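Anyone else keep sequences and structure tokens together like this?

Example one:
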Amino acid sequence: MNIPDWTKPGLYGAAIGAVALAIVGFSWGGWATGGTAQKMANDQSRLAVVAALVPICVEQSKNDPQNTAMLAKLKEASSYQRRDMLMKAGWATMPGSEDPDRNVAGACMDALAAQF
């Protein structure tokens, strides 16, 4: 079997080009593996759920009879204590749930901080 002389360099070029294309595609081209895409989708859905629950948390804070006193305590507290205080107040506990959600509490605290 006669193989042309250009075959070997052509195959090397194709292999190097394929590797370079993969490196450029995954690094700068926005390509993602299935696992990475799944993780990104999970993160985005988690953020969307938290964003949907924040108005409930804010409304629960408004309905709390100790709202004014609690907001004053939150203003005085350090930033890392506020989320825990909000969770203890029960504002981040969603209807039908027994435990407060830490992510909702953080986002709710940001929404309430805008009212300070």
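And example two:
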Amino acid sequence: MNVNTSNLVSITEANQNFSRVARMVDESGAVVILKNNTPRYLLIEFSSAEAEQTASDEDVLSISRRLLAKNHEAYEVLAK
């Protein structure tokens, strides 16, 4: 994941000015919150989180085909 350095916010700033951080998310899509100068939290829009967690049918089908081809012998033994 690429992180835009202008979207880094300290945890103190996020705590004291959350509405500003929320506006940054609205404008750029994500904000990384730093704790002790280390990336610790990622703040994104809820709709983006839902989209990230849902794999497309094509992705699932592609992975299934690859696993079936890779483990074909094992599946045949298990089918007996």
